[in-house]
Amino acid sequence: MPDYAPAQNLGDIPAWTQVPPPSQPGPQPGDDTPQEHAPMEMIIAPDFSNLEAQLDNVDLLHMSTVAQVPYLPSSKDQAQNVMKLLEGRRGRLADLGAGDGRLVFAASSVGFQCTGFEINSVLVAYARSKAYWRGIPSSQAVFVKKDLWKTDLCSYNNVTAFLAPGVMEVLGEKLLKELPQDALVISCRFPFPNWPQKSTVGSGLDQTFAYEISSVRSHLRNPPKTEMK
Ligand SMILES: C[S@@+](CC[C@H](N)C(=O)[O-])C[C@H]1O[C@@H](n2cnc3c(N)ncnc32)[C@H](O)[C@@H]1O
After folding, report:
1. Could you report the per-residue pLDDT of 71-106, keeping only the tens digit for each?
2. Residue 203 needs a FRET pair 20 to 30 A away by CA distance; which of 1, 5, 135, 149 works?
């Protein structure tokens, strides 16, 4: 099965906002049904007229960054796995690539002060509107339209990420530089190469991994003898 096999619950986000997985035909404008996605339609009304002129204005560098990590919402099981791994934790949580905010909402409901960083402004608007309609205060959940690679994460002691295999190594380097010693990092589906796991929950596409930054740092400083050359 490909890494980006669709999750089961794509339900509450319009199909046309989803970046298609490589080599699969993606959803088309108009795939949405108005009855199912009425709240979203109140926020954005996509204008597909004059598409050619609109495409001329696309920032290709921005597009290539986004394309590296496509939008794919966490499945219910995956979100539950994240919550299991967060048990016993508290404080500030950053979700890197927050999508429609589902991990942020799950974590904020158990007391974390969450920030969802997301580069796609449609998804940021959607997540903010969900927070508004659910009455979630900004002290519990905020959504920031920001490139995670340009965001300093030093004030977060919990980080969640569901990104892509190709970015895990460089993300690991960034987190090791920035996170406090007591931080916990949770990655959905894609493990960090060469990081010792604290624990893992689930299997297959829903497998989720937890890492303690202090243990990762000491492991990398003093690698087990068998790994030394
Ligand atoms: C696989 S989706 C996960 C969405 C959400 N966290 C969830 O679990 O449902 C990855 C998300 O990362 C976002 N993303 C990709 N590159 C990003 C970047 N450089 N900065 C912030 N968000 C980014 C994408 O737009 C997409 O919404």
Report:
1. 999 999 999 999 999 999 999 999 999 999 999 999
2. 149
Compute CA 26 distance to the chain's CA centroid, rounded to the nearest angstrom.
20
132 lines ligand 1 (CB under 6 A): no
Domain 76-221: give its CATH architecture.
3-Layer(aba) Sandwich (3.40)
Judge contact between 174 and 205, C-beta under 8 A: no
Q: Which atom, in ligand 1's list, is nearest to the CA of 188? A: 8
Does ligand 1 have an atom closer than 6 angstroms to the CB of 73?
A: yes
Report whether residue 123 contacts ligand 1, using a CB cutoff of 6 Å.
yes
For the stretch 119-162, pLDDT in tens is 999 999 999 999 999 999 999 999 999 999 999 999 999 999 99
Q: What are the residue boundaries of the structural domains of the chain, listed by start?
A: 15-68, 76-221
* DSSP code per residue over 58-127: --HHHHHHHHHS---PPPHHHHHHHHHHTTT--SEEEEES-TTSHHHHHHHTTT-EEEEEES-HHHHHHH
CB atoms under 10 Å from CB of 209, counted, come to: 21
Backbone angles phi, psi at 39, to 5 degrees: -60, -40
**Dist. CA 202–CA 144, nearest whole Å:** 29
- The model's pTM: 0.76
DSSP 8-state class, residue 15: G
